[in-house]
Specification:
This protein is an alpha/beta fold. It contains 18 helices and 20 strands. A hairpin with a 7-residue loop joins strand 13 (384-385) and strand 14. The longest helix is centred in the first third of the chain and has 18 residues, at 118-135.
């Protein structure tokens, strides 16, 4: 089994792999398998891997089950998480236990690396293909597709002479009636009730409290769950994209797969307008990957532009690609504008091969159905920052949400809910310590509301922000709960004194209380927020508390923390 990189197709001798899906039981008859897997939550496998995960860890599998198999494991992870590439590492060990032979050491791709996962995947793939071609040489009679020749597109766009619907610019998702709860293929169009800025007018960041009406949606959720929202591109970007590529946004087409077993994307209507395709599907606001430049070079009729694109897609050109795209966060749309001769010549059939699908964005749910029935609230920090490029960088989903104003007319947002990475104890007397600086406090608001409504006490919240009067989210609500004896609130306003004070400092100050709660009362510890520095700082504070208050040595403190993680009494939900 071989898996391909995003936007590319396998060809003989090319360093990409193609994934063959098969029934788990057939695994024992496979002579060569390459596993590509991510890690989610608290070291959990992705949803689409869970059936396989249960199968491969069955206790009744003999230790010789896979003795005829050669394998390789490629992990896709993020080193800011404590359980970095945990699934890939565990799978690699399990395959060895079952008698399989590793072709080469495990590859641990890291999203935090400046060059992205490619920094480790590139050399690993070279070694992999060397091993694979030794075992399975290319047949002499099988011609090699020349470099620079694109493979056929996955779909064809069959344009219609007349538009079936005159209102082709209206945003509509292909959503059919379904008896099940809303999902990615069947999202619920939730009416937006309020969209309120909750940071002060002089604060550097625009943060919104957004509320949706989920009446009759079939949606239910608990504290720690997340809502996924499917955003759209802005009208200005849609018009610019169509102009650069020479597309008529009002023209309609029918999407046809070239291969009989390939399904059409579930989110697109049939027939579909160019406007709908560009608005709802093509993620032109994302930073392009290396495969984008590789395919774009194949499609380019312009010699100078093609030469530069080939350079950026080569292994030797990755530093240049990082400097051109990754560091300044240059978008696909901006790249297309930089290569106008190539952009204007892109066949529409290749749009879905070239540009990735807009992926849904996950937000921690910040409310409880026990307190706000038929409502769902989220806290959204509108992403905007500057690089060396002229235009500021903007988050697609947060900027889109911020632009919606239910006061000016009905607004509907496609969304659905899934379990999150945080699970709270059901026993009423188990304390919880929640550390949520900034917007990281969102899931803890849902937890506190839910626990207070259920009569659960022992709620300890460490909240940090810059200024009490600018970004103290739900400050009045916390203080009211504190007066009622339902919450112990500890705050860290980092800019209100000469020396900055953060949540980790407050944890150290209250070390005796934290140790008492964890070691004597069986408390659960939760951490949510930005993944850059804060999680490491908080874990260092905990290690210090374990040593100073618990009298543990450094190795024993590390073992104590690992045990909390293993038993899910230490849980994190962080984001870059």
């Amino acid at each position: 089994s071989l898996k391909g990189s995003e936007g590319a197709r396998p060809r003989v001798g090319e360093k990409v792999l193609h994934l063959c899906l098969f029934v788990e039981a057939n695994l024992i008859r496979e002579p060569l398998v390459v596993f590509v897997c991510a890690t989610t939550g608290q070291g959990d496998p992705p949803d689409n891997m869970k059936n396989f995960w249960r199968f491969i860890f069955r206790k009744n599998l003999p230790s010789t089950s896979l003795c005829q198999m050669d394998f390789a494991v490629l992990g896709l992870g993020d080193s800011s998480y404590a359980k970095f590439n945990f699934v890939a590492k565990k799978l690699h060990r399990r395959l060895l236990q079952l008698g399989a032979s590793a072709l080469l050491p495990i590859c641990l791709g890291d999203d935090q690396h400046e060059l992205g996962p490619d920094a480790t995947i590139d050399p690993w793939l070279g070694d992999l293909w060397e091993k694979v071609l030794e075992l399975y040489p290319v047949p002499i009679d099988l011609p090699v597709i020349p470099h620079g020749v694109p493979l056929p597109s996955k779909f064809t766009l069959q344009f219609l002479p007349e538009a079936p619907n005159p209102s082709s610019k209206e945003s509509c998702l292909a959503i059919s009636d379904s008896l099940g709860p809303p999902s990615e293929s069947q999202p619920f169009l939730a009416p937006m009730v309020t969209n309120q800025r909750v940071t002060g007018p002089s604060h550097f960041q625009d943060v919104r409290l957004i509320e949706f009406d989920i009446t009759d949606s079939g949606i239910s959720f608990a504290a720690g769950d997340v809502v996924l929202i499917q955003p759209s591109n802005s009208a200005a970007h849609i018009q610019q994209f169509c102009h650069v590529l020479g597309l008529d946004p009002s023209q309609c087409f029918v999407l046809q797969p070239r291969e009989p077993d390939v399904p059409c994307p579930p989110g697109l209507p049939q027939p579909c307008s160019v406007w709908q395709l560009v608005s709802q599907y093509l993620d032109m606001a994302s930073v392009p990957r290396r495969s984008f430049f590789e395919l774009l070079a194949c499609l380019s009729p312009h010699e100078l532009e093609r030469e530069k694109l080939l350079e950026l897609s080569s292994a030797q050109g990755q530093e240049d690609l990082c400097e051109y795209c990754s560091r300044p966060r240059r978008t696909i749309l901006e790249v297309l504008c930089d290569f106008p001769h190539t952009a204007g010549a892109i066949p529409p059939d290749y749009l879905l091969d070239l540009i990735p699908q807009i992926r849904p964005r996950a937000f921690s749910i910040a409310s409880s159905l026990l307190v706000h029935p038929r409502r769902l609230q989220i806290l959204v920090a509108v992403v905007q920052y500057r690089t060396r490029l002229k235009e500021p960088r903007r988050g697609l989903c947060s900027s889109w949400l911020a632009s919606l104003d239910p006061k000016k007319g009905p607004v509907q947002v496609p969304l659905w809910v899934r379990p999150g990475g945080l699970a709270f104890p059901e026993t009423p007397d188990t304390p919880v310590i929640m550390v949520g600086p900034g917007t990281g406090v969102a899931p803890f608001r849902a937890a506190v509301q839910e626990r207070v409504a259920q009569g659960q006490t022992g709620n300890f919240l460490f909240f940090g922000c810059r200024w009490r009067d600018q970004d103290f989210y739900w400050g009045d609500e916390w203080q009211e709960l504190e007066k009622r004896g339902c919450l112990t609130l500890v705050t860290a306003f980092s800019r209100e004194q000469g020396q900055k004070v953060y949540v980790q400092h407050r944890l150290r100050e209250l070390g005796p209380l934290v140790w008492e709660l964890l070691d004597h009362r069986g408390a659960y510890f939760y951490l949510a927020g930005n993944a850059k520095y804060m999680p490491t700082d908080v874990m260092e504070a905990l290690m210090s508390i374990f040593q100073e208050e618990g009298g543990l040595s450094h190795p024993n403190a590390a073992t104590y923390l690992a045990r909390l993680q293993r038993t899910l009494r230490f849980q994190t939900e962080t984001w870059a």
